[in-house]
Amino acid sequence: MKVIEHLEKSRNPLFSYEIVPPPRGRSVKDLIDVVEMLSPYEPPWIDVTAHSSVAFYNELADGSIQRKIMKKRPGTIGICGIIQNRFRIDTVVHLLCQGFTREETEDALIELGYLGIENVLALCGDYLNFQKPIAKDRTSNKYAKDLVTQVTDLRRGQYLEEMSATAALDFCVGVAGYPEKHFEAPNLKTDIEYMKQKVEAGADYIVTQMFFDNSKYLSFLKQCRDAGITVPIIPGLKVLRSVQQLKSIPKNFYVDIPEPLSDEILKNPTHAAEIGKRWALDQVEELFANKVPCAHFYVMNDASLVVDIVKKFK
Ligand code: FAD
User: Fold this and answer.
1) How far is CA 95 from CA 47, 125, 215, in A?
2) I want to staple 154 with a disulfide (CB 3.0 to 4.6 A). Which of 10, 79, 96, 169 is the partner?
């Protein structure tokens, strides 16, 4: 079922989750364990992140530098296939502009159709430390909006090359939003204007970057509605579990940790997980009181704290 249908049909607010494929060379078993932990709480859908190839540099014995290009975390489509078909849980496959040609994206979408996967999240993709050369006869998407347009074209049966008797591929498309602004956007207003273009290109819903201060999400929601964006805007949440994350999360995701939360963790670093869990629970309660349709947890393959929160609503 499509994300948008889950949102329309549910009488109660939902919990959805995002997980990350295992590092290259590791077994998928650990990830299956995470899905097994979440599955008793009937997730409407699970997102699986996507990763472009990146450059790795090795210094060889003769002092020269060897560059290798590889995906650190391959397997997004295969993992979605397992979750969708073994666990019967709907999946949302993340698709990226960066590092993929439009032709590769079209092939991926055809494969997703065969696997019975109906949902994609269209993203620009994280910064790459090398530029993948694009062959002369290939094309690429620059912004997420362009990727949404490609998926929307396929909904109408419009493939990159004209072919006769093509079947439409009817995906539900989500896009990303940033309550604290995308780090490259000059200001939030401009960022919201670009986000609106993604919706006008065909996006069915928005899911936000993680935030720890609900007032930022609620203000973002109002600004989006004032700008004429009417699709559901699902809040993204993360449970803090360690004192180290007070540095790593702002550095990697460009979001603020509110003072009361960081002060409490710094005073009691050994209780960081308990403090993080209580904070996230308070966030969910306030968001549900404000009638959000769903809380989306960035699980990152550590489901135990999230499960403790979700249990309280079942
Ligand atoms: P876009 O919407 O393309 O925007 C990128 C920037 O360009 C923004 O600053 C925007 O304001 C600006 N912009 C947009 N349109 C225009 C325009 N027409 N002209 C000029 N500027 C414009 N990354 C991964 O690699 N894999 C993942 O699986 C992944 N999952 C994510 C899930 C969520 C929910 C979120 C919030 C992020 C995720 N990311 C992931 C990170 C994301 O790829 C990065 O944040 C990326 O830098 C921006 O992606 P976007 O889709 O928001 O980009």
Assistant:
1) 11, 8, 30
2) 169
